[in-house]
Amino acid sequence: MAFLEFQDISKQYGSVKAVDHVSLEVKQGEFFSLLGPSGCGKTTLLRMLGGFERPTEGRIFLEGKDITDLPPNQRRVHTVFQNYALFPTMTIWDNIAFSLKVAKRPKKETEEKVDAILEMIQLGEHAWKYPNQLSGGQKQRVAIARALVDRPQVLLLDEPLAALDLKLRQHMLIELDTIHDQVGITFIYVTHDQGEAMSLSDRIAVLNHGRVEQLDIPAKIYEAPATRFVASFIGDTNFFAGEIAAVRGDYCEIRSEGFPAIQAYNDKALAAGQRVDLSVRPEKIRVTKTAPAAAKGPGLNVVKATVQDIVYQGVYTKYWLKAGARRISVLEPHSRFLLDQETITWNDDVFVWWHPDDGYMVEVK
Questions:
Q1: CATH of 4-232 among 3.40.50.300, 3.60.15.10, 3.40.630.30, 3.90.1150.10
Q2: What does each C-alpha distance from 84 to 87, 137, 138, 162, 334 come to in angstroms?
Q3: What is the pLDDT of residues 137-163, one digit of tens each?
Q4: Which range in 15-24, 165-174, 356-365 is most confidently predicted, on average pLDDT?
Q5: CA 10, CA 19: separation in Å to the nearest integer?
Q6: What span, in angstroms and rounded, lies between the C-alpha atoms of 200 and 171?
Q7: Strands 186-191 and 31-35
């Protein structure tokens, strides 16, 4: 029996189907993310789990109990919102204690629980301050503590870091991961930020137009995307659409219009004549001013190209190159650069190259 199960869930708003027959299971204690662009249905799924929306079709089960029709206050499911939703006239201590006081918990139990969670989020010395006296990151920790103090079965986090600046978001990612490890409660995290989901999640469901395109661990989502949408939404990639011209053992040759023949690992055991979409991530491709020595051997894909644009990104430099009718993006880590390597600049003629194992066939048409 699954800890949490969405069973054929749909949600219709007039003629718009926000969620379209979604079925998925979440494990107890898992950090699970719903990831996708705006309007894909991820927040609607979260609101249905929290009891703020009712599905048009389907059922939701928590530890085997059907909670579909239960109001929010009868579910042990708490939500942390993007805007924190703290009570401005209450101290931090009272904000966290609020749900315990409403539930009429004994005074000693309330004090012990609030003090313990304040220590966990390292805000004990700020207990008697008010929300407007805290930073954005501190407010977010208080909102999380308030949602966790009564030990819910599931904690829902709806884009909780969206209001924070970049450095604070990066810091809060570590804090969230630490808090999850400490409390061991199931976290359901909604975000459109691929980096956040990849950093935090045990598993990710990638949604598009109300449907789950792929549900897997972060490494599989990135390295083995199930569809063209997943490959393009999770990071950058280069697509080569074409037809398999020949199969040689575990590898195949793909003919793509306006581009030389491409050698690729035939992970889907496709036959000659079948259509494919090949994804090659920018960091898998090398760019040099001279052809690689390995080009004389079998298999390596080597293409002549011209540099159209260069963007320095600190750890990486990103190149946009023109190869025939194709535009190729390459991400070169600076750790690859050698002191005697000739500098690449705009309009240079270069070679781009990658191993057949570095491409992934994401979709068969």
A1: 3.40.50.300
A2: 9, 10, 10, 11, 39
A3: 899 899 999 999 999 999 999 988 887
A4: 15-24
A5: 5
A6: 12
A7: parallel
